[in-house]
Design brief:
0% strand, 56% helix
């Protein structure tokens, strides 16, 4: 659900609570949302930002620095060696012509 739609939903929840159904449970049932969201809407007119999960990469951790350096070195070699790059996304499956 995009931000604008969620703000509009919060407005509708607040309006329904004051002028319509009245209870948190009734508003949630009528609008098809969780009661937690109704409580959030009543607490604040602005929906909270989404939290981004911080995830570890335990298997890649030890080799991540090596992979970064290796990829940077490969791209540097391709740029400076004068070799033609293979066009990506062409769909033909053929490599670039050599000179």
């Amino acid at each position: 659900m995009d931000r604008r739609r969620k703000v509009e939903l919060f407005e509708e929840i607040r309006r329904e609570h004051v002028h319509g159904a009245g209870s948190i449970r009734a508003v949630a049932k009528k609008l098809g949302v969780h009661r937690r969201m109704v409580r959030q809407a009543l607490a604040s007119a602005i929906p909270p930002e989404r939290k981004l999960a911080v995830r570890n990469k335990p298997r890649l951790g030890p080799v991540m620095e090596f992979m970064t350096r290796f990829c940077a070195q490969i791209s540097w070699l391709q740029v400076n060696s004068g070799t033609p790059r293979i066009a990506s996304g062409s769909g033909s499956g053929k490599s670039a012509p050599t000179q």
